[in-house]
Amino acid sequence: MEMTYCAEQDWIAADADLNDAYKAARQAMLDIDANLPQDQRGAAEYLKQAQRAWIDFRDAACAAEGYQMHGGSAEPMVIYGCRARLTGQRAQDLWVLAASE
């Protein structure tokens, strides 16, 4: 139970970083859009669509990974660990996107 709690805390921390990274990346995309003619804008919208799709991917991928321990007490720990890992990777990608503007 303690290991599951720790894995959950890791995921919560990664998710907080992801939220900050997304806000920074979104602002970068809004800045790009602001410098384009109205009919060429879309960076912020594509980022939003990508993020929604990524969340669906993460949740499904981690549910699948959890099946290694399906029905057992370790299943939530595996899922939280997966979510923390993938969320951390996504946050890094978004920080890079935010810095590249």
Q: Beta fraction of the residues? A: under 5%
Mean pLDDT: 96
> For the terminal residues, how far apart are their CA atoms?
43 Å
Question: What is the name of the CATH class?
Answer: Mainly Alpha
Work out the radius of gyration: 16 Å
Helix coverage percent: over 70%
Tally of domains = 1
At the fold tier of CATH, the topology name is: Substrate Binding Domain Of Dnak, Chain:A, Domain 2
Detailed description of the structure:
The chain has a single domain (2-99), classed as Substrate Binding Domain Of Dnak, Chain:A, Domain 2 (Up-down Bundle), CATH 1.20.1270.180. Helix 1 (2-34) packs parallel to helix 3 (75-99). The mean pLDDT is 96. It is 81% helix and 0% strand. It has 101 residues and is mainly alpha-helical. The longest helix has 33 residues, at 2-34.
What is the strand and helix layout of this fold?
Elements: H1 2-34, H2 43-66, H3 75-99
Short description:
Pfam families: LprI (PF07007). The chain has 101 residues and is mainly α.
List keywords for this structure.
single chain; 101 residues; mainly alpha; Substrate Binding Domain Of Dnak, Chain:A, Domain 2; elongated
